[in-house]
Amino acid sequence: MRDGQPVSDHGPILDAIKTVLDVEARQAKLLGLDTPVKQQLEMDQTITYAFEGVNLDNLR
User: Fold this and answer.
1) What are the Cα distances from residue 1, in Å, to 9, 10, 14, 60?
2) How far is CA 31 from CA 7, 24, 25, 28, 53, in A?
3) pTM > 0.85
4) Distances (CA, A) of 57 to 1, 37, 54, 60
5) What is the pLDDT of residues 11-23, one digit of tens each?
6) For 21-30, what is the mean pLDDT?
7) Mean pLDDT score, 29-34
């Protein structure tokens, strides 16, 4: 009691909120919503440029 008034216990409400957040986190993981958005892709490619109408010997 505080100043003659009972003190309210917020513990049950906080426990319920934690339970809801845990359920939502598990559901998001199950549905794959937490997968990374960016992915690094490595490819072995060669790019060849062809210039038409340009004499490459004049550029050296």
Assistant:
1) 11, 15, 21, 91
2) 41, 10, 10, 5, 55
3) no
4) 95, 46, 9, 6
5) 999 999 999 999 9
6) 94
7) 88
For 1-60, give the secondary structure using H, E and C: CECCECCCCCHHHHHHHHHHHHHHHHHHHHHCCCCCCCCCCCCCCCCCCCCCCCCHHHHC
Q: Which amino acid is at 39?
A: Q
What would the two tokens of residue 38 be? 């960016």
- Do residues 28 and 34 lie in contact, with contact meaning Cβ atoms separated by under 8 Å? yes
Mean residue pLDDT of the chain comes to 86
The pLDDT score that the predictor gives to residue 38 is 78
Considering just the CA atoms, what is the radius of gyration of the chain in Å? 32
